[in-house]
Design a protein that fits this description.
This protein has helices at about 25-35, 45-60, 75-85, 95-100, 120-125, 170-180, 200-215, 245-260, 270-275, 300-305, and strands spanning about 40-45, 65-70, 85-90, 105-110, 130-135, 145-155, 165-170, 185-190, 225, 265, 280-290, 295-300, 315-320, 330-335, 340-350, 355-360, 380-385, 390. The chain is α/β, with parallel strands linked by helices. It folds into two domains: about 25-45 and about 275-390, Beta Barrel (Lyase, Ornithine Decarboxylase, Chain A, domain 1), CATH 2.40.37.10; about 45-275, Alpha-Beta Barrel (TIM Barrel), CATH 3.20.20.10. It is elongated and about 70 Å long. The model is unreliable at about 1-20 (pLDDT under 50).
Length: about 400
Amino acid sequence: MPPSPEPAPGPAPTALASPEPADLTWEAADSLAQRHGDAFYIFDPAAARERVAHFRAAFRPGDLLLYPYKTNPYPDVLDTLHALGVGAETCSAPELRTATGLGITGELLHSTGCGRTPQELQEAADAGATVIIDHPSDVPPLAGRDVRVGLRCDFPLGDRRASRFGVPLDDVADAAALIRATPGLRFAGLHCHFPGTEAAFDSRARGLLAATRIAFPDSPPDFLCVGGGFHGGVPAPVPGTSPSDYAALLLPALTDAFGTETPTLVLEPGAALVAAAFTFVTRVRVVKPQPNRPSAVVAGSLFDISPNTRRTDLPVHTITRSRGAARGEVDITGATPMPDEYLALGVPGPLEPGDFVCFHRVGAYSWAMAPEWLRDRAPVLTRRPIDDIV
């Protein structure tokens, strides 16, 4: 993966102020670092529970939330979400086994993915999962099994090029006929998923309804899944991306199309549930003078907050021992030998060795994808009730 470019000389973006309470004192951070190392995550279950509540309040009681395990499968995350009745979207055999080990099955367990082997498809069916068909070749291995299936569809979405996932709209009729002709398969719904938060949800609704008219001409499907891509507040909240905003785009379209016989709407929020629930805390080890401004070398890595090694202007705050008056700015650099590893630019200074830098909203695709390259993966500490961190 190519590293992010080295900052050009001259002014750099100012780091975003943290919207999260900066309640971690230097003494507390130092005590945690003494026990767990100079770089660690803090998971706050209350933040994840709050996000689930926001989605539940915005949508209808019968609509389903499925959490994509690929976003962050840390055990405390899964336990927190599943205790609230959030289901699982899995795209690999290990993820499927984790979900079934937690007792998740049926409509609360969707098995997705592409290029699955016959054995993987059959394992999902035998586990009682709803199997999402990505390609007609997924159908024959399921023949003769009693399995609930959905069909993943691809359709135009603005200027977006065709997806490598799902069945194009022109081929939906043939795929639906194949599913219905295969013994044991119960054709229950349609699924779509488009990467990124810019894929408009009203366009997804229109595309799914177009596919519904082809695949279910006589009666509504049991479910329609709009996939993920809900905004997780990284780098900051964006107007129009709250759960209620998404509901306003999706629910009227379903009501207009189906009236009172509206299918269950399935949502797969990943980052939207866990991004805000994680903070990455890392100690400053060295402060180096540089031509433009000092750089603070921290124990952590860009990999810990951005697995694609592209610097993102995450909310950040510092925890200093001296508590002196703010002056100047500091760039935050990582401890790996990547020459362009800048975690943040223009953080308010000063910083000294032993201080800490906290990066917020790093719960999605961070710990889950951070490689064990040159160092051990940073541990996750869970915030318990009464502000206790273990």
